Amino acid sequence: MHDRRTALATGLFGALMLLGAVVIVADAMRLPGLGSAMGPAVMPVLVAVLLGGVGLGLLVQSGLRLRTAEAVPRSGAAWRVAALVGALLAFAVLLPLLGYVATATGLFVAAALLLGAPRRWVLLAYGWALATAVFFVFDRLIGLSLPSGPWGF
């Protein structure tokens, strides 16, 4: 027995993956140097083929599961999805003002709490450590500038 909504969501995601694969191939075909064996379009086309294969697999799986799927009553988790979207929007709005480390820490803590993480008292430390490590790697080591905020990090 399968949940009908899960099967439909799987099919929708598979269709979006197939659409993404088509868009990637269309963009890759506009790249210069298509005649060479290892031109710039090789990797995007390879990614598109893999993406399309997974998308097709999800569509087939969804179709098979829909045959035996049953409607399941709503679980009330929609508010969590809305809260996660709100946390992502807050991250986007506050990023230029507070910087990457502060906003990424907030996003980590919010997402972990909404998804039911245990040991709530250490979430802030984990979030700050992860955001600081990502900031250090991307901003300092690789050289990709991340918003530093009023504190310089």
From TrEMBL:
<keyword id="KW-1133">Transmembrane helix</keyword>
<keyword id="KW-0472">Membrane</keyword>
<feature type="domain" description="DUF1468">
    <location>
        <begin position="15"/>
        <end position="147"/>
    </location>
</feature>
<dbReference type="Pfam" id="PF07331">
    <property type="entry name" value="TctB"/>
</dbReference>
<feature type="transmembrane region" description="Helical">
    <location>
        <begin position="120"/>
        <end position="138"/>
    </location>
</feature>
<feature type="transmembrane region" description="Helical">
    <location>
        <begin position="7"/>
        <end position="29"/>
    </location>
</feature>
<keyword id="KW-0812">Transmembrane</keyword>
<dbReference type="InterPro" id="IPR009936">
    <property type="entry name" value="DUF1468"/>
</dbReference>
<feature type="transmembrane region" description="Helical">
    <location>
        <begin position="41"/>
        <end position="60"/>
    </location>
</feature>
<feature type="transmembrane region" description="Helical">
    <location>
        <begin position="81"/>
        <end position="114"/>
    </location>
</feature>
<protein>
    <recommendedName>
        <fullName>DUF1468 domain-containing protein</fullName>
    </recommendedName>
</protein>
